[in-house]
Amino acid sequence: MKHELKFTLNGQPYEIYIKPKTLLVEVLRDELGFTGTKRGCSSSSCGACTVMLNGASVKSCSILALQANGAEVVTVEGLAKGAELHPLQKAFLDHGAFQCGFCTAGMLMSARGLFEENATPDVMTIKEAIDGNICRCTGYNSIVRALTAVSKGEYKEES
Amino acid sequence: MSKYSVIGTRVHRVDGVEKVTGTAKYTFDMVLPNMLYGKILRSPHPHAKILSIDTSKAEKLIGVKAVVTGKDTIGKKQGIWRRFPELCDEEILCREKVRYIGDAVAAVAAIDEDTAEEALDLIEVDYEPLPAVFNPMEAITEEAPQIHEGVELNININRHLEWGNVDDAWKDCDHIIEEQYVCSSQAHVCMETHDALASFDHNGKLTIWTSTQAAYYIQVLAADMLGIREGDVRCINPYTGGGFGSKFELDSAQFCAALLSQKIRRPVKIVLNREEEFTATKRRTPMYYFVKLGAKKDGTMLAKEVRVITEGGAYTAMGATALYLTGFFSSFPYKYPNYRYDGYRAYTNTAPTSAMRGFGAPQSTFVGESMIDNLAEDLGIDPIEIRRKNGMTPNYVVPGQAWIQSCGLHECLDAIEKHVKERGKLPPNRGIGVSAYGFMSGGIFNWFDTPYAFSSAIVRINIDGKVDLFTGANEIGQGSNTTLSMICAEALGVKLDDIRIHSADTGICPPDLGAWGSRETLMNGNAVKRAAEDAKNQLIEFAAAKMGINIVYDMDIKDGWIHLVDRPERGVSYYDIVKDAIRGKDGEAIIGRGHYTPHRKGMISPAYSFGVQAAEVEVDPETGRYKLVNVTTAHESGTVINPVGIEGQLEGAIMMAGGYGFCEDQPMDEGKILNPSIADYKLIRALDMPETEILEIDTYEPEGPFGAKEAGEGLTNPTAGAIGNAVYKAAGVRIRHLPITPEKVFRALEAKKKQEK
């Protein structure tokens, strides 16, 4: 028995029918093909699947898709405006804040959640915000430097 | 001003935009029309005979399209050791016997993952459990069960290295110390688990997309195990979500997906789940070290004797190389006049142990650097001074083994000495430990018996001056696509943006041994540089002819300008000459070729990098808990091609090597790994990361492209030793068993208090 799911993804409304046990990450990746969001563990402990749900970052393997009914979801694909990269993306590029790139979508969306709450977080707040995201390549410090630069206003969103 | 236009500049990764926008495609993301999903059934027993496998119920389940077991294979055993067939000992799908919890026995392809999973439950395997052995020290005794037929005392392989006369040297030593150390296991924890998408067409041609460090190895090994020709397999490595040594052998996802697809002629995708990733892929080799070290009163080290027994797990994997390298790097980075190493690798009924970043050297460096601090303290010599006294220097020859050309170890020691002084007097319970290291820039090993050059590259210049660079190098996150593109742009004299790299697709790229042993920058970099120079020389011929210059002038290309070296203002545009040259060649694109295989560089590697690291810790003397405060590394890797890449390698290595020293472990019970999840396997997270500082030391390596050498794995070697030495400085306890957990520090502090009473 499939259920209706209505939600907005990266500004686009969707109406689909899914099995009730489907996870949000499965809808995003498998049903809708938004594969920018990754899965690293399926036990909500690596953060690779982090997306924005109604303005807050959540691990999309930890919630049922039906819990997102009526919600606004933003994934990594929703960060850039056309060819114009989001400030977080620019900062990640400049600071070499990723290597293999598999954790990057989750890392960016955790950061996005942080900046929604606090436009000028300090280093400790930044570290706390990404402590739930594992990166096996960078050692995190380049990510912290990128986010610190954003916090200091070095990367402005073009209006 | 740098003489280079591209090399040494801070650039965005060439794969950067794709990775930050989520458009980079990994095998994990790929879907093909008509694709099936595969799952693998694994042994719950550490050691058992397979009496029978009944797949009939699984085959009848609606949605199941194919089931395979060992009987569907051609019965070969795989391994990377094509020159040493006795070391190829892994069937992947076991036919008669399982040797560890996680060994694969069957695989299913179905219309979705749930159905495949359900089918696994319907496969009935009748096992006869056999006695098992888990500890390598027990495995090499007469009483232990035999794990592989014909392998006496479960000794998979042994390695011996010797120079000088160790036995005679002891009598010249004023002080000798003897210790035992235990180096633990470690999981690679790539963020993308092992996965593969295999697609056989009806002509019997296989394409396999997979997360790998060595597409060429997978092409060849898959062909071998399936009984088809190499040329009928195309292996493509799209973006790969981390490797760290875990992804250059043929694995169960690749083999089972290919075998299922061969049977059903539909694409089959297998993604290992995180628990399988922890329990059924390979891991860092645990080692038991017995070391004797002797020196003169003045700190001159005269002799070292090392005996090592490694926990091999169920198969050879890359463990034989780890056994060899841990022996070689136990002598690093010092000039021991007398040295002896004996290593034994024991089969055990545990998950196979293999390559992991550092490849045996993090173990040897932890042990060696702990011992040297110990020796220095006994002799009343400063830890940096004793390293300076014995450290390798440029043009040093490791007797019978290796020729070191560039070596900046002493400059690194100077830089770290300055750093330690600048930290000043430390607050109570803090300590700084130092650790020196070296590592190879790719191995001169050809156990794979490749008939091809170790690295090759092709450069094709198109009509608009854009360059297609084809290389078998594997981008796994380490940045080889960026570094090689930079080398190509510099060597050809064009902009980085002019280069488009095509890598690790065996259908279109020349073979390369892959991303392991820190080999891509030097080996593939040399091939790329030579290919670019070949193409450049062809353009210069046309330019010289067109300009009618006196032949006494040398010409070069820089920043898109083909010019006389001595009169740079006299020249023509690269872009114009390309157009003429292609016309002049009857329309053929300009194609440059380059390859590299090391020659006359000893047994191990064409070049070595060096460094010294200082770790600062703060220990709570009541609880043994400690914090990594600062890790500063003085490092030399020849000419820095890609500075952003080096910073990333260095900081990332501290996360991984710090984890090895500090918290990462794989406790087992009767061969079962007890923490097979990211929640239970403790990794360094953002809040645990210390401050990191890099002190880059200039060196130039004659064998490397533009003077460059490795900057990948060597950085994982020093940290566990530096942490151990720092904990000793801060708390006065020496931990000889990795990882140095707070619990071990606490127990050592308790024991010390008791002793003092």
Q: Count the strands of chain B?
A: 32
Q: What order do the strands of the largest sheet of chain B run in, or round the barrel if closed?
A: 3-5-1-12-9-10-11
Strand-residue proportion of chain B:
25-35%
User: Which overall shape of chain B is indicated by the principal axes computed on the Cα atoms?
Assistant: globular
Structural class of chain A: alpha+beta
- Determine the number of helices of chain B (DSSP H or I, runs of at least 4 residues): 18
Helix percent of chain A reads 25-40%
Net shape of chain A? globular
Structural class of chain B: alpha+beta
CATH class of the largest domain in chain A: Alpha Beta
Q: What is the number of domains of chain B?
A: 3
Q: How many DSSP H or I helices of chain A? A: 5
CATH second-level architecture of the largest domain in chain A: Roll
- Computed over alpha carbons, the radius of gyration of chain B is 27 Å
Count of distinct strands of chain A: 5
* CATH superfamily heading of the largest domain in chain B: Aldehyde oxidase/xanthine dehydrogenase, molybdopterin binding domain
**What is the mean pLDDT of chain A?**
96
Beta-strand fraction estimate of chain A: 15-25%
- String of helices and strands of chain A: EEHEEEHHHH
Q: Under the CATH scheme, which class of the largest domain in chain B?
A: Alpha Beta
